[in-house]
């Protein structure tokens, strides 16, 4: 297999599954670290701050500098700052998103009556009142921005509702089309390219989820590697009209 | 306009909007009462008991006997009893639905770990945990039954999320098709016909929402009157392939 200058990994389903590490991926990243090859962790998870994600990765034996972690929360905060500088925002989300927006200079603790942007990330305490407020704000003209459009995510109990479920609910009630920043939007890969100056053909996106990870790489225009360790099975991937560059069982196949 | 023996009204968006009465509709019902013409209130609202709905109507100056009120909560409880007699059920909803299910002999206060049916009606205290539990129960095989499929309903503040929004969320996460009992299903009009013995051409269904009220009448096979006082605008109605019998701005037009 071709060697790349920058390996971009999805996290959940690719590097770990819930509380379990995926050994082949961890071995692969260790090898990149030993060989001083660049790698990035590109996750739609908006609930955790980079430091919290660092701790999660440390639990699987991965020592990763903060600046190698790109979450949909960070990308969303940058997106909102670029497109709606100094706007009044209303946020539904968790630590990761609040932290990222504050870092970009937004006030997130005020109850804005007429926000210009409603930003939504996964919030395990979301309730009717929060959704109703978001619906009303969007009907009054606020732009609806979601960190990611995942309808569901796997857990030990089965699939649980993902952020995309709630953003779609608000969008349907308010009759608008939301903007989603996370994968499959190419925004996070674009930011990595801009910051490090790679050519697209020097980058590869690696992930288990066809609809987010693989399409993100395809939309961006770099090579992609599908791993059969999470949401989308290899069988399902082979039926898609747009194919990833490589399909592997796990990353031991290409070490 | 043709005179009917039985006028069936939707409530929210037709007789009132949130806490505001719609004067033209209230005048119209007063006139029916004076002329001793039958009328019924046929609502997808599952949150209130018939007595609570009576109180709401009294606030708008309408004195309506309890037996003239048909709610999706009452219809759903009957449906679940017919199809899943003595089943273990898990309920998300408000007073109206709990009350109706208890009347049909169901236990609604126990936390069922493996319910056979998940019944969902509007719940203004719905939250992530309730939705997650419903998603898991349905993935484990429970049938998903919704009182009504309204995605949204009008309020003074704008559209707010309706029960259909939450049932669809659970259905999408669990990858199932739900059953809906309220309008546009013709069940409630069928019950009125059965109880009073009208011919279908003696009945008319009046409402603001094309997708629930008007389609309910069309599915049932009676005449329909669309009023431009709520969810669906006349402009939107005119683009539908199946047209209501009449389209009016409000009920003053036909008094």
Automatic annotation (TrEMBL), chains A, B:
GO terms for cellular component: cytoplasm. Pfam families: Hydrolase_6, Hydrolase_like. The keyword Metal-binding applies. Substrate binds at residue 183. NCBIfam families: HAD-SF-IIA (TIGR01460), HAD-SF-IIA-hyp2 (TIGR01457). PANTHER family: 4-NITROPHENYLPHOSPHATASE-RELATED, HALOACID DEHALOGENASE-LIKE HYDROLASE DOMAIN-CONTAINING PROTEIN 2. This is 4-nitrophenyl phosphatase. It comes from Ureibacillus xyleni. The lineage of its organism: Bacteria, Bacillati, Bacillota, Bacilli, Bacillales.
């Amino acid at each position: 297999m071709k060697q790349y200058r920058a390996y971009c990994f999805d996290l959940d389903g690719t590097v770990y599954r819930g509380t379990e590490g995926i050994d082949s991926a961890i071995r692969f990243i260790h090898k990149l670290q030993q060989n001083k090859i660049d790698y990035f962790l590109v996750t739609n998870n908006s609930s955790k701050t980079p430091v919290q994600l660092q701790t999660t990765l440390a639990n699987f034996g991965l020592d990763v500098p903060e600046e190698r972690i790109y979450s949909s929360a960070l990308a969303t905060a940058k997106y909102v700052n670029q497109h709606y500088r100094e706007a009044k925002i209303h946020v539904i989300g968790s630590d990761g998103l609040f932290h990222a927006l504050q870092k970009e200079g937004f006030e997130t603790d005020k109850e804005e009556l007429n926000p210009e942007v409603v930003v939504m990330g996964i919030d395990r305490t979301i309730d009717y009142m929060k959704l109703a407020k978001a619906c009303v704000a969007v009907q009054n003209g606020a732009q609806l921005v979601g960190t990611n459009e995942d309808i569901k995510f796997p857990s030990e109990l089965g699939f649980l509702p993902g952020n995309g479920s709630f953003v779609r609910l608000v969008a349907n009630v308010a009759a608008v089309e939301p903007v989603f920043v996370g994968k499959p939007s190419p925004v996070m890969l674009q930011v990595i390219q801009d910051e490090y100056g790679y050519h697209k053909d020097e980058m590869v996106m690696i992930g288990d989820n066809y609809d987010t990870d693989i399409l993100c790489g395809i939309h961006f225009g770099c090579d992609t590697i599908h791993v059969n360790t999470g949401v989308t099975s290899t069988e399902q991937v082979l039926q898609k009209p747009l194919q990833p560059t490589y399909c592997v069982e796990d990353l031991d196949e290409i070490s």
